[in-house]
Amino acid sequence: MGASELGTSDQHTLTVVNQVFSGFSVCGSALIICSYVLFPSLRKFSYKLVLMLSISDFGNQGCSFLGNPNHEQALCAIQAVGIQFWSVASFLWTGAIAYVLRSTVIDKRTDIEGTYRKMHVFIWALSFGAAVIPSWAYAPTGAWCWIEGEDIGGKIMRFIFYYAPLWFVIGYNVFAYVSVIRYLRRVQLLANSINTNADSQPRFEMKAISRLGWYPCILIFCHTFATINRIQNWVSPHNPSFVLFLLHTCTQSLTGFLNCVAYGLNHAVRSAWFERFPFLKKLAVCGKGRENKFHKFENEMSVRGEDNGKDVPLDSPVDNGNGEGDGPDNKL
């Protein structure tokens, strides 16, 4: 069923495409991991979540470099377990990031860092269970090894231990980020009605707020074609679509790279790299002025208090550069 029904050349093409696109994701994830190791200033609670996401993506896409070990039972099992474990962990960590952002911005929780260990227990335990329980169904599936879907048992395993929790987390991400965006827009409109000193600033700030919508969009983009492809496999198991498999492979393999761009390469990370390696700043595409316009929102997950160096809620007063905290009309 699925890719195993494709021709040998098509399967080989999918394997190569998977490895190439996964290479971008591995590099992106490695960049985030290196940033955390090299720059102590980034080792805040919010960036720890991004680090866990990047480690999961690194493990997930790294399994692609095993190729298509359909004749090596041990390697096939390792690849299947790795893909299942790390991919589940990856989307669960995106849910954790969405939960922290919503809890901090909307619910005004100040004790959110205390849930970090619970997040680890919850996410790694679920990922471990999702990888171990369907282990009897791991087998070559064409271009890589995963849960075999030829019989009804394999189809159920795929749905229960991957696609159902995946789309539940995607749904929560959409809910969380839409809630945060709507909240920030209401606050920003209120701020604009009070502060009329800068006519052009609101346009940039509203655009920056809208960028929060990129996060759930990345999840949807990376997993929609895979889901459509699996539905097609279930409906017509002996007539797979190579085009769907190609789109499935390309988009899912880019998960780590896109997560790196969205979650990890914010202003603080870029500034740390520019300070350590000045020549990189010359290669930057964005101008300094525009970069500063987006600074307040680009760091929505890593706003830091000037006095104590700890993460603080997004709507907490932040130094405005004049030695004074922002008032209620300029919290954002």
Provide key terms for this protein.
single chain; 332 residues; mainly alpha; Rhopdopsin 7-helix transmembrane proteins; two-stranded antiparallel sheet
- Percent helix among the residues? 55-70%
What about the largest sheet? 2 strands, antiparallel
Strand order of the largest sheet: 1-2
State the CATH architecture. Up-down Bundle
| Radius of gyration (Å) | 22 Å
Give the topology string: H per helix, E per strand.
HHHHEEHHHHHHHH
Helix- and strand-based class?
mainly alpha
Output the CATH homologous superfamily: Rhodopsin 7-helix transmembrane proteins
What portion of residues belong to β-strands? under 5%
> What is the molecular shape?
globular
Q: Note poorly predicted spans.
A: 286-298, 300-310, 312-332
Number of domains: 1
Number of helices: 12
The end-to-end distance, rounded to whole angstroms, is 52 Å
Fill in the CATH topology.
Rhopdopsin 7-helix transmembrane proteins
Output the CATH class name: Mainly Alpha
Mean pLDDT: 82
- What's the number of extended β-strand segments? 2
